[in-house]
Hints:
Elements: E1 16-20, H1 26-32, E2 38-43, H2 46-57, E3 66-71, E4 84-90, H3 99-109, E5 110-121, H4 123-132, H5 135-138, H6 149-158, E6 161-169, H7 173-183, H8 191-206, H9 209-222, E7 225-232
Parallel strand pairs: 1-2, 1-4, 2-3, 4-5
Antiparallel strand pairs: 5-7, 6-7
Amino acid sequence: MVTVDFHELKLKPYDVVLDAGCGTGRHLRQLRKMPDLKIIGIDKNMEAVHEAFTSLEAMPDALSADYLVSIADISRLPFTDNSFDCVICSEVLEHIPGHESALKELVRILKPQGTLVVSVPRYFSEKICWFISKDYYSEKGGHIRIYRKKKLQKMLMRQGFSCWKINYKHALHTPYWWLKCMVGLKNEENRLVKYYKKFLEWDIMKKPRWVRMLEEFLNPIMGKSIVYYLRKI
Length: 233
């Protein structure tokens, strides 16, 4: 499930790109389909890092050969100042107690005029999940805060960024998480959850035009994620 619109980034050959909190590599795989980038992914989860690296190695349609995936903490990044042309931080900040410290690190390693993309769960859809299920936010490693749009934008601008675009993604995933919260987050046998998950997997694989058009229409109304596109001043 890719959250970033890569055409917005205007990446050039030999740009150095970091996915901070890369998970199993969904954005890294998209980056590797672009030519001649230097790609780095970091995450604290060892299993996720291993899965991301394995999936990058197995790609038959890769155009960028220079990549690295490693274990690291976003609040203490092992990179020198002004190292990256672009940093992606997708669905990460809502998990981190010291989110402003993490942002300071992203500022430090990003080149002047470099691009930062931040996505977090959108306030409306997230608030309903928290209301329905205590387990959704109380489990270890879960979401510890809900961001309001303007409050997060102001925090990002305080760190030295200008914001040129905000959009919303994954509207069709919102009802899926509401369903899971209602029947139990670990209840994968519920019939509605199973069928809806199969629908989402089918959509990701086949990308039917009518479903894509429906989601684009619904994203501003009930998108699961809000995405900020920023530039370091």
